[in-house]
């Protein structure tokens, strides 16, 4: 036995808060979720007389619908088509339940005359057998054109709500579906507030489960849940609801202005897409404003405190040079922490380090007289170009000031890594192994006695000199890592300022409705209504009435919290701190092949016009501007 078909009617709330005219046409989308499930999204309603007058003086209805559909999002164009849904009129039966009058043969069907004939829609849709009223003029032509695909007839009556307000809720009279006229459907009326740009919209808020970072394996039954076929095209439905307002504006513009209509960009036809584009646009100027604001505050303070800042920095640099570098090198020349080192090699490395430090101290003394101007220039840079420009300049200044530490660290890293590689190569000779650079593996190899003797003679002194080199390498690696850590902290500040969505924070504080995350339904009423009226004594057992479930609910949204709005933008800051990067940096420090600056903070993704060549960017801008101009040959 075939299951009863289900119909979900998504109804705009503005049509419930006002009494419609005597007869109205409905426009929107039919979305087929399955063979027995249908979603009807009503975007707006158009008065019968007004629609007939407008279309007769301007364009053909099908042409207007096609042009409106072309401006809809790609998701709607692939899954459904914007069309004329059906007819909406008043129910004059005076009963809150849906009752079809037996006397009005032009309005309703005679259920007992020919039940079998009711289930099939004849070619003459204007006949009384299908239950559709025959209209006048162009309205009848609109109805006949829509009947070739699908057609619904809705009626309404006035009912008291819980709050005492009079609302108008639609009731399904019948529907023409796949060549059949159906009366017995389980109807779910979902009332929604029409989304508008800058007001609110709906979003499913589905998070990607792959980003959860769980290491445990999900059970099979959990994976099977995501493989089941959904019976509701909820993503398409939400996209259609978000495009309802734009569809009404486009249709009205087409109908009132003919082919010279107002062109709306494709991403503007869906409120959700428009909001995302607006957030992306506002994030640029808001970041610039906050950056300049913070830079001005810190720059003005640094400008007036330039001399005390110069004295403090000069004293700090002098203390580091004397008490850390010089004393550290002298300490390494002796027996550091009771660690036995080679006296001759330690003396050579110590003298090289002290000479480099002395040369740099002399240069720093010459640059000290100009350091006040550098400080004021840094303050002026923050005032004019913002905090991040000044912070980037600070990183460059730190790199220049600590150039002697970097130079000594690179020299000792080269010496240390060379000794490590030499010891490893000699150890492979003792094991009878050889590194194959083509296949990146160790192969067996027969070495001669002379080669073993030479390897033994080289292995002993290099192994004995390695602790001395390691002591100097560890000392300067610690200093260089501290300098890199300071640069990382400053880079983290730059990334934090760039990544913070100031526009979203301000908009969230003002209107949370612009940040939906998930939907929920508020059930108003649920009842079994008698959809088939029995015609007194003429009824038979085979034509008994059938009960259909009628459910009325309101569509609501959940909203993101402030942390949920901000946190996705900060995940790029920590992109450099992954397990693989930390392990590779640690391996590089132990072998002397890399420095700790590999640990870096990540910046937000590049803007679209930065990722493409400038010629291509201006060509796209030119095409976008001229695409929004009316076509002079569209008449």
TrEMBL record:
Gene Ontology BP term (one): GPI anchor biosynthetic process
Transmembrane regions listed in the UniProt entry: 288-306, 345-366, 378-400, 406-427, 447-466, 472-497
Database matches in InterPro entries: PigQ/GPI1
A cellular component annotation (GO) from this entry: membrane
Domain of life: Eukaryota
Pfam families per record: Gpi1
Keyword Transcription regulation: no
Keywords, alphabetical: Membrane, Transmembrane, Transmembrane helix
Protein name per Swiss-Prot or TrEMBL: N-acetylglucosaminyl transferase component
Species of origin: Buddleja alternifolia
């Amino acid at each position: 036995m075939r299951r009863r078909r289900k119909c979900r009617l998504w109804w705009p709330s503005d049509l419930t808060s006002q009494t419609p005219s005597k007869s109205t046409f409905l426009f929107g989308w039919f979305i087929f979720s399955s063979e027995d499930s249908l979603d009807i999204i009503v975007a707006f309603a158009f008065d019968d007389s007004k629609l007939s007058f407008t279309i007769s003086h301007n364009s053909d209805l099908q042409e207007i619908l096609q042009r409106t559909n072309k401006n809809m999002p790609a998701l709607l164009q692939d899954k459904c088509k914007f069309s004329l849904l059906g007819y909406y009129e008043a129910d004059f039966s005076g009963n809150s339940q849906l009752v079809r009058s037996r006397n009005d043969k032009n309005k309703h069907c005679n259920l007992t005359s020919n039940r079998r004939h009711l289930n099939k829609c004849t070619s003459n849709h204007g006949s009384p057998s299908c239950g559709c009223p025959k209209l006048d003029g162009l309205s009848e032509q609109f109805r006949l054109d829509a009947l070739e695909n699908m057609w619904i007839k809705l009626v309404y009556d006035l009912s008291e709500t819980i709050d005492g307000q009079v609302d108008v809720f639609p009731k399904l009279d019948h529907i023409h579906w796949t060549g059949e006229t159906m009366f017995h459907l389980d109807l779910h009326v979902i009332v929604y507030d029409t989304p508008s740009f800058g007001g609110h919209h709906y979003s499913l808020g589905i998070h990607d489960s792959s980003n959860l970072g769980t290491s445990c394996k999900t059970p099979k039954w959990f994976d099977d849940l995501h493989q089941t076929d959904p019976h509701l095209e909820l993503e398409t439905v939400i996209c259609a609801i978000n495009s309802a307002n734009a569809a009404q504006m486009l249709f009205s513009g087409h109908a009132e202005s003919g082919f010279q209509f107002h062109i709306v960009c494709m991403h503007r036809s869906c409120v959700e897409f428009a909001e995302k584009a607006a957030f992306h646009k506002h994030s640029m100027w808001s970041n610039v404003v906050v950056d300049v604001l913070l830079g001005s505050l810190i720059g003005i303070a640094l400008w007036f405190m330039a001399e005390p800042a110069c004295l403090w920095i000069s004293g700090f640099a002098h203390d580091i040079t004397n008490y850390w570098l010089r004393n550290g090198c002298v300490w390494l020349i002796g027996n550091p922490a009771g660690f036995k080192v080679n006296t001759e090699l330690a003396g050579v490395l110590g003298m090289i380090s002290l000479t480099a430090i002395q040369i740099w101290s002399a240069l720093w003394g010459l640059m000290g007289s100009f350091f006040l101007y550098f400080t004021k220039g840094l303050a002026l840079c923050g005032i004019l170009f913002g905090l991040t420009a000044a912070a980037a300049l600070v990183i460059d200044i730190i790199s220049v000031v600590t150039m002697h530490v970097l130079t000594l660290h690179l020299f000792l890293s080269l010496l240390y890594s060379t000794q490590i590689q030499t010891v490893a190569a000699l150890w492979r000779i003792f094991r009878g192994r050889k590194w194959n650079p083509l296949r990146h593996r160790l192969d067996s190899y027969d070495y001669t006695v002379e080669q073993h003797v030479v390897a033994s003679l080289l292995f002993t002194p290099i192994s004995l000199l390695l602790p001395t080199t390691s002591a100097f390498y560890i000392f300067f690696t610690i200093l260089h890592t501290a300098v890199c850590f300071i640069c990382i902290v400053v880079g983290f500040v730059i990334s934090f300022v760039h990544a913070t969505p100031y526009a979203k924070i301000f908009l969230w504080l003002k209107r949370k409705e612009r940040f939906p995350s998930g939907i929920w339904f508020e059930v108003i009423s649920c009842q079994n209504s008698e959809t088939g009226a029995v015609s007194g004594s003429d009824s038979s057992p085979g034509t008994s009435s059938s009960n259909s479930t009628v459910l009325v609910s309101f569509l609501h949204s959940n909203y993101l919290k402030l942390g949920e709005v901000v946190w996705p933008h900060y995940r790029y800051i920590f992109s450099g701190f992954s397990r693989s990067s930390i392990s590779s940096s640690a391996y590089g420090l132990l072998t002397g092949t890399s420095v700790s600056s590999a640990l870096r903070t990540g910046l937000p993704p590049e803007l679209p016009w930065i990722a493409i060549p400038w010629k291509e960017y201006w060509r796209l801008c030119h095409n976008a501007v001229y695409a929004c101009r009316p076509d002079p040959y569209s008449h």
